[in-house]
User: What shape does this take?
Amino acid sequence: MIKILLFAELQEQAGVDEIKVEKAGLTVSELKNWLLEEYKLTALAQTMIAINESYASETDLLKDGDTIAFIPPVSGG
Assistant: This one.
């Protein structure tokens, strides 16, 4: 089981802040494509990615028990 954490606009688009899926063995890129198709998360392209609280890349492989967070850019003022 993979836990996906969503923040800000991604949370609003999906209607949830967390998704649990059986997607071990996929790359981050493949998971992003699945999320785009399943939840129409158009803001994924601009996100930073963390797996188990460490920054990750699109080519990283997901393992059972991982927590992946998609963190959209933050602006302040």
Summary: The longest strand covers residues 2-6. The CA atoms of residues 20 and 35 lie 12 Å apart. The chain has two helices and five strands.
